[in-house]
Design goal:
349 residues, TIM Barrel, 8-stranded parallel sheet, 3-stranded antiparallel sheet, 11 strands, FMN, oxidoreductase, NMO, monooxygenase activity, detoxification
């Protein structure tokens, strides 16, 4: 199938493997790119030095196109008074495992817009494209990408966000629905429940295509080749799939993570794990987080405290397990085989 996505990136299949911080790996991205899709690697949670190592590892494994994902969130409010109720409420959980509870929170993931070193790495190593999550890059960074010939994808969850991103000069829009796993890319308001399910995503794609000139990639709860066919029929130029690739052996997902994926465990959206709305498998961590009464500190300050607790607990079920709707349709296949299956399903559809 030839679309604007396959044409511009030289792909066999209109499928992007979503960047998933903490799960995706250079090996996963390379395997997808080698098989004819578009592999992505998440750099938002890495230092510039670690990001450089990840990109170099991918380039050693594939000559195919690669997308580097970046977080462009607004700077959080670092306010001890605002964080104190949350930290006080979670302190007993640390005490239960004889661990020291944090007395403050820090910004563990700086925004790309504030990280000049990361920009230098990207301009030096030049991935095929970058993808932006949580908003827009600054005008100077967008100019730098254009001058370097690096294409830019950006996530939107509404037509209003798509129009705002189009004005910044991005090349592709990734329209993400309410059912997407991990963090919602919403930046002009909360995720819209109206975009849940296949019908909601298809409507979001149709509405966006009617409003913008840019090519649109659909994301959120897409697990099969039939799902890809449906969003292309709605006007998308391709599909971004994350949860579908979590169970691949090239990912960092734990055995327990994969077990829950395949078991049919439900998913739920919460802001209490990271400070931003994100969809997770319902496990011990999510149930604990959803039971908290205090408002979480801003992202990623909240995430800092929760990740410290996860490390202290050392419990396979008390860990971050982002996943989208349809997670129970996961298949535990190597990435190349999974892409082949998806392509066959797309062809049949």
């Amino acid at each position: 199938m030839v679309t604007r996505l396959t044409d511009l990136f030289g792909l066999k299949y209109p499928i992007i493997q979503a960047p998933m911080a903490g799960v995706s790996t250079p090996a996963l991205a390379a395997a997808v790119s080698n098989a004819g899709g578009l592999g992505s690697v998440a750099l938002g949670a890495l230092t510039p030095a670690a990001a450089a190592r990840a990109l170099k590892e991918i380039f050693a494994l594939t000559s195919g196109p690669v997308v580097a994902n970046l977080f462009v969130h607004r700077a959080p409010r670092v306010d001890a008074q605002l964080a104190r109720p949350f930290l006080t409420e979670i302190a007993p959980a640390f005490e239960s495992v004889k661990a020291q509870a944090p007395e403050s929170v820090r910004e563990i993931y700086p925004s790309f817009n504030d990280d000049d070193d990361m920009l230098e790495i990207l301009l030096d190593l030049q991935p095929t494209a970058v993808s932006l999550h949580f908003g827009t890059a600054t005008a100077s960074r967008m100019r730098a990408f254009k001058q370097a010939g690096i294409m830019v994808l950006a996530t939107a969850t509404s037509v209003a966000e798509a129009l705002a991103l189009e004005e910044t000069g991005v090349d592709f829009l990734v329209m993400q629905s309410y059912g997407a796993g991990g963090h919602s890319g919403a930046f002009l308001g909360p995720p819209d429940l109206a975009t849940a399910g296949g019908a909601g995503l298809s409507k979001l794609v149709r509405d966006t295509v009617a409003a913008v000139e840019l090519p649109v990639v659909a994301a959120g709860g897409l697990m099969t080749g039939r799902d890809v066919a449906d969003v292309i029929a709605a006007g998308a130029t391709g599909a971004q799939m994350g949860t579908a690739f979590i169970a691949c052996p090239e990912s960092l997902a734990s055995d327990r993570y994969c077990e829950l994926l395949l078991s049919g465990a439900p998913t739920r959206l919460t802001s209490n794990i990271s400070g931003r709305p994100a969809r997770s498998l319902v496990n011990e961590l999510l149930l604990w987080a959803d039971g908290l009464a205090a408002d979480p500190p801003d992202y990623p300050l909240c995430y800092d405290a929760v990740k410290q607790l996860v490390a202290a607990k050392q419990n396979a079920d008390f860990s971050v397990m982002w996943a989208g709707e349809g997670a129970n349709m996961s298949r535990r296949l190597p990435a190349r085989e999974l892409l082949t299956v998806l392509a066959a399903e797309l062809a049949d559809a």
